[in-house]
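Re-running the complex after MR caught last week's input typo. The corrected sequence lines follow. Everything else is unchanged.
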Amino acid sequence: MIFGGTMLSNGLVFARYSLAEWIQGLLGDRLEMIPEWILFPLLMLAGCLVIIGFITVFALFAIWMERKVSAHMQCRLGPMEVGFHGALQTIADGVKLLGKEDIVPRHADKLLHYLAPIIVFAGVFPLFVVVPFSEKILISDINLGLFFVAAVGAVEVVGVIMAGWASNNKWSLFGAMRAATQLVSYEIPLGLAFLTIILLAGSFSMVDIIHQQEGWLSNWFLFHNPFMPIIFLSFFTASLAECKRAPFDLPEAESELVSGFHTEYSGMKFSIFFLAEYAAMYVVCAIAAVMFLGGWSTGIKPLEAWLADSAGNPMREVLSNTVHLVVIVTKSMFLVFVQMWLRWTLPRIRLDQIMHVCLKVLLPWTMVAMVATSAIELCWPGGNMVLTALTIVIWSIPLLWTLKAILDMTVGIFLKFVPSGR
Amino acid sequence: MGEATNVTEVPLPQGGTVAVKPGDFRTEEMLLNIGPQHPSTHGVLRVVVRTDGEIILDSQVHIGYLHRCFEKVVENVTWTQVTPYTDRMDYLASMYNNLGYSLAVEKLGDVEVPERASYIRIIIGELQRIASHLMSVGTYGLDVGAITAFLYCFRDREITLRIFEEVCGQRLNYNYIRPGGVSGDLTDEMLKKIDDFIDYFLPKIDEIDNLLSMNGIFIYRTAGVGILPLDLALDYGCTGPVLRGSGLARDLRKDEPYGLYEQFDFDVITGKGEKGQLGDCWDRYMIRVREMRESCKIIKQALAKIPEGKFIEPKLLKNVKVKKGESYLKVENPRGELGYYIVSDGKKGPYRCSVRAPSFCNIAVLPEISRGCMVADMVVIIGSIDIVMGEVDR
Amino acid sequence: MNILNTLSILAAAPSEATAIWLPVFFWTFALVSVLSSLAVLVVKDIVRCAFLIMSSLSGLAGLYLLLGAEFLAFTQIMVYVGGILILILFGVMLTNREPLLIKRMKATGLVAPGVLAGLILFTAIGYSVCTVDWKVTDQPLPADADTPARIGNALMSDFILPFEMASVLLLVALVGAAMAARRGGAEG
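Corrected-run output:
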């Protein structure tokens, strides 16, 4: 589904310049008749619509995936009735949510209650501007990409606090306070992880960071030196906290705070919170893929070289974009799957413990890894094969264990597809 | 002097207190109603907590939302008609409620119980203990946010419920164990099914251990939280896993055996403070997991030894003759010491029937052990006490 | 706010034809930021005030974007919206007597000093705006005008002393905050 949606977009080629080219190709000489000052806002509008389209399609797929993943992890089948294996269940639920009454509690601050979902969504939506899909399929490669992510990512929490405050409910308020506390904790290891990557790539730009990692798999920043996996784990943990996923789902902890900050939300407002959560999941995973897993790079040098050699070969350019799109979406979806996997396995952590984890565990480790990485970068600029080999050797045991677990799970699901006792 | 009295001792989450003087930086206190409608109060418990931020300064337990006048109702029915009402007290361990009542009536009425019935009672009772503990362990996982553990437990509990359904036609309120025996026999096929279940279930306990009990975050959340010292537990009359979690090996099946428990070999599990301090939530939780293994042990022995014979005198299914007098009998319910105090005036039904409910006594200790914890811990502590509101309110 | 920011990122490289839109963005951001600043003065609800501050600061960030100062704009969002504003909200929520009632601020006797301070600030800024010899140029900005590399180099060479002083100041503030928070524990 997701592939279909984005592939369609691939045909549209909506990058800033490429979109102009595409429209030129479509309209030919008639383009001259449209003044550029009208075309310009239209292009921006098109970019926004494409992002919204992507978020919606992704959320539809990811919610279904979450339900199926959780179901099969729990010896259930999950949604089975609507469409093939319940594939259309999310749409049915969406329609139901649209038709639900929008309830605003008495004595709630109506204006802020109304604005909160919008701000939460607005904290995630702009992040897609810098999330790349392939060379041509990206809205904008601003040269402060990662910094932009770090800055705008914090806006979401403002919306969460607003929702918690405006609801006039003590549970919501607790959720809001937890969100604020959580933000103060996870932002620091997150920022340090960003810093390390910026240090290695020498650039904030997402596309630059990916270009730095092209070539063989060993060029990925994850394998740059033995300290990078620490940074990756720390980043991934902090990013779980950023999109409020278990084990860091404290602001909405349903067994403690009923539903946390969105206790008093119903209907479409609630679904916008939901949409924002899933959109944030994709964004942090895509950014992790860009930062550590080579972005759209396949990790096979000859293939990359062949794909890149597209001068005067438009078909190969389309092929290259498609391959890269599939690669980066697959990498991101894998990380999204890991997020779901963790959510359905781990208990929830406590508020003081999340501060402890972020500030006393992740922070020192990330700090050490960052200093070590910068020292290594100073000694061997551009990386060192020996260090990469060392990284793979040292980290292969946890890696193999993870792979085994994944195989157990994926193959295991198909082996015992229907749970026993039915 | 005014100075000194204004100093308030505020408990800290890590233990100990801080003296707070007026004028110190303080955040405002807040009154918070946990329940009666809350996902993790296991029914309709209502706890009013006074919090400072997320730290609980004080709490007060409010009960009575599920009061159904058990003790008054049973004064107007016959001896055999009481058992369905006992079902509805601790609805997660109905078999054991039936058992306690039946034993109390048998003690007062000098009713002979066939040996086979006693064995069936032990098998079914221990199976009920497993089902009840699975519920408790599973929902405890839910309380700390581990949803999958909950469903694993429910998958296995489902099998025990199916067995009960085949035995007596009901899944929750069985009315199976009656004064004088049990209401239906266990066929060989059923015994085989129970045996198969035990063989299937023992490895599943390891699965629960791997997934939940030994999970780092789970230990982080539960160990050292809600510590209940032994003297406090005794003061409040806590029994069952809550008391054993504090380190005292008190189990009525061993100490004052009823039924035929003296013939069985099993261990009484006590908390040792392995992961945190003695008497913390993890200890109380782990008692239940380990007790499931002991229950399996008991069921295996009972299945090996179960004799042939009657399971009840048929006329006893109508009513029991009980002479004038009174009796008190207690059994080891999955949640603790379940006592029945029965007064008979020689008529068709009980003159008075009073129940000592283990959950009722256990929940009383909640304000003591939750002081200074966080709101998130409150849920964990309530879960570790494992209450059933039907039994607390009766 | 953020959608506007998105749009202005797209506008980061204005060509001559698209420059026609710049006044639109400028006036939007300017109005948002000025109107919400005024609203902060008028609105009595303290939490709404905090959110209005956010809107004002975001508008300012948009203005920075239009000036081509992306780094400054994002820092503005990160530090003020993501950091300081959340701390303000946190403080309001934790210390309010009745956390769930919308707090109304009472007029205090500080109107006159406030007006005075505002006037002094306004005069000082106005004076410097009028007197400093701004270098006006028609040339487009160099491509690397606002790159973090240049900022970093400047901080580490010409401005190393102020930079380090600021770091030390922040460190002292951090230690002080930690000590203030530990006070109860240290006494007890």
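None of the earlier attempt is carried over here. The helical segments of chain C are 2-10, 22-42, 46-66, 70-95, 111-131, 148-156, 160-187. Chain C has a mean pLDDT of 75.
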